[in-house]
Design brief:
alpha+beta; 3-stranded antiparallel sheet; globular; YyzF
């Protein structure tokens, strides 16, 4: 499993402009997850969308898209989500 600290240090700093526009326009091919659910989220994303996701810290995406409605809980638990896979 990928450690949360490793993800933080290796995560992308700026969101890909195409993915940013996609979310801003209501795109729904994304997963938000807590740090301890990353492995499950990665597996599901690849299975569902047949491609590897870009992974971002949700707090950074919220800064870039302040009007975007952020899901309040992890897809797999009631925890606060930390990452978004797009």
């Amino acid at each position: 499993m990928i450690g949360a600290n490793k993800m933080k240090s290796e995560g992308k700093n700026m969101m890909d402009p195409a993915k940013k526009e996609y979310l801003a326009n209501g795109g729904d091919h994304f997963i938000v997850c807590a740090a301890d659910q990353m492995e499950l989220a990665l597996d599901e994303f690849v299975d569902e969308y047949s491609e590897a996701p870009d992974v971002y810290l949700l707090t950074e995406v919220m800064q870039e898209l302040p009007d975007w409605k952020v899901p309040e809980t992890c897809r797999y638990s009631k925890q606060k989500p930390m990452y978004i896979l797009v």
